[in-house]
Design goal:
The protein is an alpha/beta fold. It has 2 domains: 188 residues, Glycogen Phosphorylase B (Rossmann fold, 3-Layer(aba) Sandwich), CATH 3.40.50.2000; 185 residues, Rossmann fold (3-Layer(aba) Sandwich), CATH 3.40.50. It is built from 16 helices and 13 strands. The strands form 2 sheets. It has a 7-stranded parallel beta sheet with strand order 3-2-1-4-5-6-7, sandwiched between helices. The protein has a 6-stranded parallel beta sheet with strand order 10-9-8-11-12-13, with helices on both faces. The chain is globular. The two termini are 15 Å apart.
Amino acid sequence: MKVLHIIISLNVGGAENSLKRLIESHKDDTNYQHSVLSLTTIGKVGEQLQASGIEVCSLGLKSSLSLPITFIRLIKFIRKANPDIVHTWMYHADLLGGLAAWVMRKKVIWSIRNTNISINSGTATTTVHIMNICAYLSSYIPKKIVCVANAALISHSNYGYNKKIMTVIPNGYDVNKINQAAVKIPRDVFRHSLNITQNAIVIGSVGRYNDYKDYPTFIKTAVILLKSNPALCFLLVGRNVDHDNKMLAQLIIATGHQDNFILLGERNDIPACLLAMDIFCLHSISEGFPNALGEAMSIGLPCVTTDAGDAAMMVGNEALVVDYSQPNLLAKSLQKLLNLTVSQRSKIGKELQQHIKNEYSMIKVKKSYEALYQQVINL
């Protein structure tokens, strides 16, 4: 079965990494032949897929002015690739890739990765408009729509998407593989490279800088915690989470505790970054099925998360979940973990790791996608 994946970009992100893991799960399965087309650039994830032998191409879309020619090139690419299924990822690819595949009479699967999409929530106006167009076209173009979270299915059916063809397939995790990647750089070595002492407690966060991730709340939370834990270290990882981000840098400088923050920016060694942490914190106001949280749980980190998307379902422990945009509540929950012994925190981390193994293994997700592909082929 030939599956062509179309995605807006292949930079490091939750959707991109999920696509990568899905393709890698079929590495030794000759029944599935995956290829990937990025509407913009190859990106780091695209380079990684190419290195593993996957066909990855890009169309170089830069602005709305080049949409007509990009759409024509997209149709030509689909005609040449002649896939059995066109699987698109996220709104822009759902619209452009879906329309092009529909023109070529190909069977289409859409992917929804977000939960809360509205202008008031910080989403770009263009994206909201594209989502609304997709909602209308959802009864005509896709055979199936895959939502990464139950919360995403509910919200998008409320937006007008065709609920009859929607299904949920969460992110999947290969816990052993993630841990093998983590220990490639020993924890002590990694922390030493960042000037983090052996006894320091590190609270970490992973996610690109945007309104959804709500870094201001995390920084306010850090200030609260530092009042009684002045030696705490906060390790922040993600695209645009660096000192070149003037808005973020100003927020940190304003705390008067900039020495307690380490900003690593975008990385391709996330497992190693997670292994350097003692506690993981997800502070988003909106998520689908937060990939970084799943990876932190896979490492065995004790986690605290806001109630965004399916995060609460993922951790399966209401004591570790707080309302979003509430720094006092987030600080209180994190302080409870700080008050525990190392072994007590480790026990919580191991429980979360086992929960990921039991409920969200890559094997389960692989089988779900295989069943979906077979179902669509037979429609």
